[in-house]
Amino acid sequence: EPEVTQTPSHQVTQMGQEVILRCVPISNHLYFYWYRQILGQKVEFLVSFYNNEISEKSEIFDDQFSVERPDGSNFTLKIRSTKLEDSAMYFCASSDREAPTGANVLTFGAGSRLTVL
Amino acid sequence: AQSVAQPEDQVNVAEGNPLTVKCTYSVSGNPYLFWYVQYPNRGLQFLLKYITGDNLVKGSYGFEAEFNKSQTSFHLKKPSALVSDSALYFCALRIGYSSASKIIFGSGTRLSIRP
To answer: Is A102 a residue whose pLDDT tops 70?
Structure first.
């Protein structure tokens, strides 16, 4: 069964450092997302991406965050200058459009745990 | 405001008993609703969805959910719980009409099934 792959599984970084989290979505999917989950609790939407541009972003997704799909397969989340409160599990998800209703089911990766010291 | 809520942080059920995990929503227009499950150290996995049609939706692992428009609820149910059902369950709501619209998640309900 196709899966979404995320790397690294765990990254420890110092406050103020840049971090790039990588994702390989399912190959024929069209929509890509990043979510984060703090301490195994609420899953928070960060950003959605379609047709090589951001579709929607949350208030969490400020200027410190950016996303890219540089080569048609990878989907990356960059945090330019990490803060302590960025410590969380970051999940990548992808989906295809389901005709005819257009109701898309998300397939999640296993997550990248980011620890900011 | 459009939102999804799970009023219970934890639900405890004995194995073999029926279980219900509650979800309520607020949305303008017709809701697109989902249930996902998360096992420890794993990503979320899709269980089922409601788009239109029958109010009772059947999904994976014997789960089903009942959509109730008048009560704006979408409760997850299973007739007979298994210990292996113990996990974190999330109700989700798509905000917007496009396939690119964001999907937001409730706060999660931890389901614990005791043998």
So the answer is: no
